[in-house]
Amino acid sequence: MKIVIVGGVAGGASAAARARRLDETAEIVVLERGHHPSFANCGLPYYVGGKIESRKKLLVAPVEMLRNRHRLDVRVRSQVTKIDRDRKQVHVSNLETGDQYTESFDKLIIATGASPFRPPIPGIDSSKVLELRDLTDADRMHAIATSGVKRAVIVGAGFIGMEVAENLVLRGIDVTVVELADQILPPWDREMIQPIEKHLGEQGVKVLLGESAIGFQESAGDGLTIQLKSGQSLDADFAVVSIGVRPESQLAVDADIECGPGGGIIVNDSMQTSDPNIYAVGDVTQVSCFVSKTPVQIPLAGPANRQGRIAADHIFGRSSTYRGTQGTAVVGVFGMTAAMTGLSEKLLQRHDMPYEKIYVHPSDHAGYYPGAQGLTLKLLFDPIDGVILGAQCVGTNGVDKRIDVIAMAIQASMTVYDLEEAELCYAPQYGHAKDPINMAGFVASGVLRGDQPVLHVDDIQSKEDSERFLLDVRSEGEFSDGHIPDATNIPLESLREHLAELPSDQPIAAYCKVGQRGYVATRILRQNGFDAANVSGGYTSWMRRSLDSE
Amino acid sequence: MKIVIVGGVAGGASAAARARRLDETAEIVVLERGHHPSFANCGLPYYVGGKIESRKKLLVAPVEMLRNRHRLDVRVRSQVTKIDRDRKQVHVSNLETGDQYTESFDKLIIATGASPFRPPIPGIDSSKVLELRDLTDADRMHAIATSGVKRAVIVGAGFIGMEVAENLVLRGIDVTVVELADQILPPWDREMIQPIEKHLGEQGVKVLLGESAIGFQESAGDGLTIQLKSGQSLDADFAVVSIGVRPESQLAVDADIECGPGGGIIVNDSMQTSDPNIYAVGDVTQVSCFVSKTPVQIPLAGPANRQGRIAADHIFGRSSTYRGTQGTAVVGVFGMTAAMTGLSEKLLQRHDMPYEKIYVHPSDHAGYYPGAQGLTLKLLFDPIDGVILGAQCVGTNGVDKRIDVIAMAIQASMTVYDLEEAELCYAPQYGHAKDPINMAGFVASGVLRGDQPVLHVDDIQSKEDSERFLLDVRSEGEFSDGHIPDATNIPLESLREHLAELPSDQPIAAYCKVGQRGYVATRILRQNGFDAANVSGGYTSWMRRSLDSE
Ligand SMILES: Cc1cc2nc3c(=O)[nH]c(=O)nc-3n(C[C@H](O)[C@H](O)[C@H](O)COP(=O)(O)OP(=O)(O)OC[C@H]3O[C@@H](n4cnc5c(N)ncnc54)[C@H](O)[C@@H]3O)c2cc1C
Ligand SMILES: Cc1cc2nc3c(=O)[nH]c(=O)nc-3n(C[C@H](O)[C@H](O)[C@H](O)COP(=O)(O)OP(=O)(O)OC[C@H]3O[C@@H](n4cnc5c(N)ncnc54)[C@H](O)[C@@H]3O)c2cc1C
Ligand SMILES: CC(C)(COP(=O)(O)OP(=O)(O)OC[C@H]1O[C@@H](n2cnc3c(N)ncnc32)[C@H](O)[C@@H]1OP(=O)(O)O)[C@@H](O)C(=O)NCCC(=O)NCCS
Ligand SMILES: CC(C)(COP(=O)(O)OP(=O)(O)OC[C@H]1O[C@@H](n2cnc3c(N)ncnc32)[C@H](O)[C@@H]1OP(=O)(O)O)[C@@H](O)C(=O)NCCC(=O)NCCS
């Protein structure tokens, strides 16, 4: 068996190593265009910022290790230029020597990844406009970031843009981020990501939303001017473009291998392309979304690694299959964390999938133990059977933990009722006797059982909603510090004595700070014959919302 | 509907609050013997040590809040002395006034918890022998710990003993821990808990295993002498006895309500006792183990809280049921963490349940990102179908996260094959592209698929195993720094060239530092016709084991 693998990093190297473990006699050729296989893409931003000091640390599995330990025929600086399906061979160009040759295969694995999207903006080819995908990019950015420059503009506020922003600030550089969308970190829902946006500002990073770069111009001296769509322009020493990636699937396209509309190579659950002798894994593929079952391109390292393993398995007759990508992701931004799994609310809307949602704002661990910090957890679920569709969490500590737990629940097709009964680690420095996961389960289950009909701040804001009586059940002090316009304040503790003051012919929206007292008020009111509902996430969610519409 | 609840903390207060939310008109009486309902039992050790400075913080839901917000008739210092099932009433003694009265009920919930076990050791009633269950105990321990004393002896190295040890050290007190078992933290398996034992020593805590207190004697001056079984005796200023708890079920026993052999009140999955009008929740109950389905008494706050909620649900005709306790637990000891879920190896053995196990020793996050620290994860699973039976994890960071994920997997009856495919949060400061969870899944699945037959260090140690050829595949440097006696060193990288030197008629045990290179070696050897197996956890597990038998 001769296996040729194009691309030798996350997906490719994983496939190669697994293939060797499955078969000592196979011939395994790894063709990698770059200088190094198996490097830590995900560490690049932190190398730029100096958190990772040694470049060598980024070389996860150096060539020698892959050769000696796994007997892989790894060839770096070797670019595949063509796939010849009929002859079952690839054309290879040795980038060092310029030599061209062909290499035959029994099975081919395409693991070419995705490349940064570079729109045809005037001036984008300037040497002062950088991107960050590989070690060469990182070397370039490292050099400029440590050269005493003062200002950088980052175009695109996705994962990589955010990580680069943090790391340039670590180098003492003034950073402005320009993002076309109306929020940073577009995979998350907008209201969830607000605290991170605010936090960025507090770190001195300027964020321009709904804005895009339309030109880069090297200015006199050593500078660069970035023209924006709004007419504004920004001066900087350099710019970084990080507005998403595109599957590097040209080889497949040229070989008439089926690709999706986004350019990803279409694969089945054994990672086979439309040509059963050719597999594709990682960022170059279009896979199925685990939740919606629709086609997706989600460029993440975990899926790439596992897909590589599955392709190797299938080549050697194993039955493991890929279940689809859930989209579990995490990003750290100046000490805060955003994580998510499954579908976002906007994707659910785009797919026209019915859903309900709730928010809880608990602390990461018991409030009575020092260091407890707030987090916000949003849960999206099927309004009929309660199956969990997605979750997002933002905070400082314990964020990845909660999303990992829900990621597991989604894998198991669990419902919000299962979250009620989850039995998780509890000691006061780690969580709560009722963990935020349980709490989200309680609230969501209560909504589905009709115990607490739920309203969302967007309902409250909408014009049609002016007929609703807004009841603030927080304390007088909390109320006078700020409240939703037109709300009436009756603190929960005395609500039962003031029922007569409430309208019996008008729907009531009760709210508190985070939703918990609002819920108790809702229970009291409904049992007394009022048509009451609870505002999910309470005033905390309202404040996010109204920041939003500023 | 009139509900009477005996005990007003975790289980009792949760039942009461939930009952009120379900029914505004119910009469709900909470009878609590102590001075406060709803206090943070789990925070008491940290109050003693000063991490929690304000005693007020421990009062999670003060009486006024329960009265005003939930209209609960909470009566503190009110001890129930008898349950009269025929008359459906309880006898109450007001501990302030000495008054006795009866209170009728439609439904009764027993939530009396568990009390520290106090064996009849001479001198145990000395005022210098403390225990820690409630605020009064905590006040006493706080007073003595801040009075300038120098030495304390803790009898019992369970959760509470460990937490008290840490907190007394924080107060500058010299601590010796005496434990009857051959390990600290007996719920964990012995080899897993070794690093914590070592860590305790490094913090200056002396641990005496296989030892017990047989007498306490107040000495001249202000001291206390603790006589030990071995004949040794220890001088201290005070002692703390924390050798486990016993269900406070005497009320139930006296009322002929069925209890199990360990004293726990037997309940069904709606938390009803043998008298359907009487419920029991929390530490006072005997419930079913989620994994083994055998009766267990596991005193934890999460289960108590959820059981209280379920009892209230059932009283009001709701269908929620308790699924059994999994035993998910976590404890922090001087910055290290031990967590577990499901059954331990020793419990599996005790239940005669077939199992297989593997160990992995990855870092909590990507090794190339600063701050990565090792953790050990042990996975126990069904040897036939791979269903997960239990897991234990010990380390510094990310320990509770991994156990929470596996706790969820156990709830969903998932297998080790599901762990292979888990899609978890990954960025270098949070985890790995192949998370320790995936890694444990890979290894366990490889064992079940026969890819890597597994040996354990105990197999290697056993006399019968002298016939096995021990192959160390680490580097020469690692080997010369220490190895398993009688092992032969052939580094993995050159193994393929030295196959001729290996015995073809003898089983081979391959090992490396943690198991990964040993696995690759095993693959190479098996495919070359050798009868090879991999030593799970490698030399790291061996070192634990041999520490163990010192
Ligand atoms: C800066 C940065 C930070 C990231 N952070 C995270 C993170 O925190 N978490 C996360 O989950 N993911 C992260 N990612 C994404 C993650 O790195 C990718 O999802 C993953 O590497 C994809 O693996 P792959 O094998 O598909 O592609 P890659 O790892 O990109 O490997 C593809 C390789 O193929 C080579 N190649 C392409 N075409 C050819 C050809 N014709 N011939 C020969 N070789 C070719 C390329 O040179 C490249 O080295 C990050 C990515 C970047 C760039
Ligand atoms: C120091 C300490 C640390 C702990 N740490 C943790 C931890 O980190 N994580 C964890 O999960 N668990 C921990 N626990 C255990 C946890 O607190 C218990 O599992 C939980 O409180 C049990 O709830 P319960 O309602 O059954 O009993 P309790 O919370 O103990 O409440 C029972 C109440 O009933 C009252 N009572 C008893 N008899 C009568 C009577 N006859 N009449 C009236 N009232 C009566 C008692 O006064 C008591 O207040 C800890 C416990 C202690 C003591
Ligand atoms: C380094 C690289 C080549 C490794 O590939 P790999 O050998 O398949 O993966 P790992 O080193 O993680 O090892 C996993 C294997 O070791 C086994 N293993 C791990 N720990 C083990 C242990 N303690 N005992 C026994 N086996 C163990 C696993 O079972 C698995 O083998 P399997 O797939 O045959 O079941 C590849 O992951 C890579 O190139 N990574 C860097 C690039 C990258 O991922 N970038 C994105 C993230 S920054
Ligand atoms: C304080 C105590 C009385 C609280 O009981 P409780 O009101 O049932 O519990 P919580 O305060 O955690 O609130 C949970 C309720 O609020 C609801 N809730 C929480 N956050 C909400 C939000 N943001 N929006 C809407 N509802 C919310 C939940 O759905 C749940 O209601 P439900 O059970 O009817 O579904 C009880 O837990 C207690 O005594 N605790 C201290 C003792 C203890 O547990 N000790 C051991 C650990 S230290």
From TrEMBL, chains A, B:
EC number: 1.8.1.14
Keyword Ubl conjugation in annotation: no
Stretch forming the signal peptide: none
Amino-acid biosynthesis recorded as keyword: no
Entry similarity comment: Belongs to the class-III pyridine nucleotide-disulfide oxidoreductase family.
Domain Rhodanese: 464-544
Cofactor: FAD
Database matches in PANTHER family: NAD(P)H SULFUR OXIDOREDUCTASE (COA-DEPENDENT), PYRIDINE NUCLEOTIDE-DISULFIDE OXIDOREDUCTASE DOMAIN-CONTAINING
SMART domains listed in its UniProt record: RHOD (SM00450)
GO terms assigned for molecular function: CoA-disulfide reductase (NADPH) activity
Record-given protein name: Coenzyme A disulfide reductase
Keyword terms of this UniProt record: FAD, Flavoprotein, Oxidoreductase, Redox-active center
